[in-house]
Amino acid sequence: MRIALDIMGGDHAPAAMVEGALQAAEEWSDTELILLGPVERSESLLTGRRPANLSLKAVEEWISAEEEPVRAIRRKKGSTIVVGCRMVREGEAEAFISAGNTGALMAAGTMVTGRIDGIARPALAPMFPTLDGKGMLVLDVGANPEARPEHLEQYALMGSIYAEKVLGFEKPRVGLLNIGIEEGKGTSLIIDSFARIRELPIHFIGNVEARDLLDGGCDVLVCDGFTGNVLLKNTEGVAKAVFGRLKEELTRSPATKLAAAILKPGLKRFAREMDYKEHGGAPLLGLKGPVVKAHGSSDARAVYNAVRQARRFVQRDVIKGISEELQRLG
């Protein structure tokens, strides 16, 4: 298996990307990792560690986070993101991972890798942390801010297949994000989407409210990209604020510091369960090849986990499963 990795994307690039790739290459000898970026920068970070299954591909251009996505991929056809998506399309790599510009990756995935026949719009599908530690797949979270009922219907189908094949959920529970659980509640988009999704051959449990998500209200959550993005960023903000305030309180006095020492193992375990780094990245579901968007703040561990996720994406033949299900549904 060959997985291409953009070393120039993300807040901690290229160091975190190269280190994460090294860890993954040392873990999975059956997977060749192809690092895309300036060769001299990669070589300077390898520091004598060069597994046989890690190779370098010289790519001198990359797209920054500030660049307008579509214009950038048209102007920089030799950038790491475009090259990676092209490698997947042409079979030079079975999967591609980038922590770079999300919009550019989405545009390149759609325009270069291409969509699965029958899929109107791909969806960005990260894992949302839950208190039971299992997590929940959410799609879409920003690939398409506006959506139609047929798009949410396809998200539900793709999410269910991915959750079962890659995440290991047995008969995954699919929910539709709404302001109430009652059927017939919500906007016309939600009402029409509900009617479509319940006809799919998946385990649809109906509407789900945001307040029930952390308790694991469902395994796959379907929403439009605008709502999903707000949900994700609000949750990240709340988690950051809570952990920050907790740290302040636990270091306020000698007594609270003593309590912190006792609570430390449990708090570390909880923080790990709620950490995006443990999930690695978000697949762009609906493309003809596996493309994974790693978090922009990914460290080496997150990159390692993104490789693990991409391997499963390929091994479980998710794209074939989605294509076959779409053909069956007509």
UniProtKB/TrEMBL annotation:
One GO molecular-function entry: phosphate:acyl-[acyl carrier protein] acyltransferase activity
The protein's enzyme class: transferase
Record's keyword annotation contains Lipid biosynthesis: yes
Keyword Transmembrane found: no
Pfam families linked: FA_synthesis (PF02504)
Compartment annotation: Cytoplasm
Known catalytic reactions: a fatty acyl-[ACP] + phosphate = an acyl phosphate + holo-[ACP]
Any one Gene Ontology cellular component term annotated for this protein: cytoplasm
EC assignment: 2.3.1.274
Pathway: Lipid metabolism; phospholipid metabolism
Keywords from the named record: Acyltransferase, Cytoplasm, Lipid biosynthesis, Lipid metabolism, Phospholipid biosynthesis, Phospholipid metabolism, Transferase
GO biological process: fatty acid biosynthetic process; phospholipid biosynthetic process
UniProt function note: Catalyzes the reversible formation of acyl-phosphate (acyl-PO(4)) from acyl-[acyl-carrier-protein] (acyl-ACP). This enzyme utilizes acyl-ACP as fatty acyl donor, but not acyl-CoA.
Subunit structure: Homodimer. Probably interacts with PlsY.
Family: Belongs to the PlsX family.
Identification of the protein by name: Phosphate acyltransferase
Organism: Kroppenstedtia eburnea
Name of the gene encoding the protein in the UniProt record: plsX
